[in-house]
What does this fold into?
Amino acid sequence: MFKKIGDALRRFLYGRYGMDELGAALLIAGLVLMLLGRFWMALFVLPAYAATFYELYRAYSKNFPARRRENAWFLRLIAPLRDRQNRYLRCPKCRQSIRVPRGKGRIRIRCPKCGEQFEKKT
It folds into this structure.
């Protein structure tokens, strides 16, 4: 009996997107908001359920390109928070994002896209 249930579940989940970094973040945020809503304010309950249901929707989705775009957007958003060895600056002329090492003091930076040179503290 359990083998049939396991086989049916495996067939259902075949071709589904599953979990990624954005899904894990949504799940954790949903759980934290549920705990806050339970012990502190009921105001957090609705966003908690919304985050959890959106994560489940993403996990069971078969639209791989859309889920990959969403995850790539999320990873670009949190990249500066995860990278503690580098600092991300913007060129004042062309707005190109430039990665420079942290802790080097005041340095002259040359934009690889437009060639503009400017000084910033890292």
Notes: The longest helix spans residues 21-39. The chain has two domains: 1-82, 85-122. Residues 85-122 form one domain. DSSP finds four helices and four strands in the chain.
